[in-house]
Write a structure and sequence with these properties.
This protein has about 190 residues and is mainly α. Helices cover about 45% and strands about 10% of the residues. It contains 7 helices and 3 strands.
Length: about 190
């Protein structure tokens, strides 16, 4: 209604509504590990095309799965995979720059980013200037993207709140608890 009101107020010829598209890039099937470990290259490419990442972490028992839920471990592992996926293109670029020479500003920035990532910290926690952000824009770095962590838990767990271990792992991220089962029931 607000967009329609603004369209009338400014006598716009065209009304453009905001659009949000969700891309589900589920991980590899259980037991299937990509060559060399880590995230599959098609998953990385799909995530690079997104403006933000939403990680849904299971925090409920599922009799269909052999493993009990470990939301904090899942979140830690996912963040580690994102860090590793960012290290590869930066290290490759640094090697190419060593052969080509020049571009000292970019080389120093990449070295600083690599050191930050090797400290197991995402680049979103790294202070970057406008020019530095522009220099890194073409790399598709996943840890620079805004990330929301959705903790999918049982309705009965809501009074206890978010487990402390999950809150610690999600430090620096937006964390939100939901009950996917309730949401599914409401949608039906």
């Amino acid at each position: 209604a607000r967009v329609d009101h603004l369209t009338q107020l400014h006598a716009s010829k065209k009304t453009v509504y905001a659009e949000v598209t969700f891309v589900d890039v589920a991980g590899a099937p259980e037991g299937a590990v990509p060559k060399g470990g880590g995230l599959d290259s098609h998953v990385i490419r799909a995530m690079q095309g997104c403006d933000a990442l939403v990680l849904v972490v299971r925090a409920f028992e599922n009799p269909a799965l052999a493993e009990p839920p470990s939301a904090a471990l899942d979140l830690r592992n996912f963040q580690a995979e994102l860090i590793l996926s960012d290290l590869a293109p930066l290290e490759n670029r640094l090697q190419r720059m060593a052969k080509e020479g020049g571009r000292d500003q970019e080389r120093v920035l990449i070295q600083r980013c690599i050191a930050h990532l090797e400290g197991e910290q995402p680049l979103s926690a790294f202070t970057l200037g406008e020019e530095e952000q522009r220099l890194l824009a073409g790399y598709g770095l996943l840890t620079l993207k805004p990330m929301l962590c959705l903790l999918n838990q049982e309705e009965s767990d809501f009074p206890r709140g978010v487990p402390e271990a999950v809150a610690l792992e999600a430090a620096g991220l937006t964390l939100m608890a939901i009950s996917g089962k309730i949401e599914m029931d409401i949608a039906e």
